[in-house]
Amino acid sequence: MADKKRPIDEMRDSAFQFTIGDGSERDSINAMITISDRLLMVTASQTLEIFLPDQIDPDRTNPAVPHSQICLLKHGATSELLGRTFLLCDELIKPEHLASHIQRDALMECALGLASNLASIKEKTEHFLELQNDALEQIPEASERLKSQNIFAVPKVEGAETTCKEVFVTSKHVLQSILDMAGIFFGEDLNPGFFSNIQEFSTKKYGQNDEFSVFLQETHSFREFLREVRNSFEHPKQNKHAVIRNVRINKEAEIELPTFEHVHPKWQQPEVRLDFLFESINKNLIEFSENMILHMVKKTMTGKFAGSETQLIWRPDGLTDKPHVRYGYGIYLGGELHPLG
Q1: What DSSP string describes 85-114?
Q2: For residue 312, what is the enclosing H or E element?
Q3: What mean pLDDT is reported for the chain?
């Protein structure tokens, strides 16, 4: 006779329901993604990790352990940075289309880390812009003081240098996530410690005029600039250092917003506004990440469907519920390209 189920077993084995996010329509589920034993749910506005009671209490000793959720990212299906990285990987990293050695779970973990670091840079940028706007709002008051006291109290953007350093350090983490992904995509053929190794690998295997090799060469300066600036912050030297200037008045008696300059014999950067620099880094890192994912997928595609080789296709309008996932798989049938999935 089978052992009688305990009340806690009955409860854990029965159907259940719970609210995702704040329960609003915008937090309806757009995607459910499993990574090993992790369950992630992506809504329009955020990415959540769901914990079932058995994950927390596998021996089933406490019936009070609830289902729980943690917000991993305040970016969801409508987010550009999530769509062009993590959700793109979820769409493309499928065993039926890729080489057998590729480990989906390991790649998805890297992709989540990649998106997390991109989100961190975006959040640091947005916080900096808020502080800069706060400083600008003090200018009328400072102007009044000039009239009464003949002195202008220049406002300051707090933490400008710290934020700048954090953006470049986090950019290095973004690049490291991509290096880790390259090691999984190309396996034992590649030692992915540096992008120069990927460049050498691509040139040797595919040729220097191959689109992947050309892309790596074209983005070399961008990657090296990020690396060298980070080094300048962490190991400043007389001829290699970053210069952050806060809000100030120039000789034309105009307010100048915080700027960045990089002193370096090779990777110098003339003075540029910090907000412009941060926005450029955000944009270019997302673009670079998406293109690296696409190139690595192309190089490891092996799948066929209905006797036809699968193709990587561009969907300019994205997916219905994930508008920034602009690529997917397709095949030619009857001379026409048809999307899969």
Answers
A1: THHHHHHH--GGGB-TT--HHHHHHHHHHH
A2: strand 311-314
A3: 89
